Amino acid sequence: MRDWRTQMAPDDVALVEAIAGDLLSDLGYDVTGTAAGARLRAKATTAAAAWQAKRLAARLQPMVRKARKRLGR
Asked: Residue 8: phi, psi to the nearest 5?
């Protein structure tokens, strides 16, 4: 099994932990516990929001296609 923490740059590990550290900990993974600075927290928030937006767009796309088809567009 790979150890992603040793195969990723320290800044990337900190970003992953800033985004999903609580979940990783709940699942039994060791986390470094390094406190993320304001800049890293902002980057994590932006990354999480972008992921959510992509997810939402993927869910809405079939509905938009169906609506356009009904409207004859």
From this structure: -115, 155
Mean pLDDT confidence for 22-38: 82
User: How much is the pTM?
Assistant: 0.52
Residue 1 has pLDDT above 70, yes or no: no
The b/e string for 29-62 (b: 16+ C-beta within 10 A; e otherwise) is: eeeeeeebeeebeebbeeeeeeeeeeeeeeeeee
d(CA 44, CA 50): 10
Domain that holds residue 31: 4-71
Gyration radius of the chain over CA positions: 18
Provide the number of structural domains found in the chain. 1
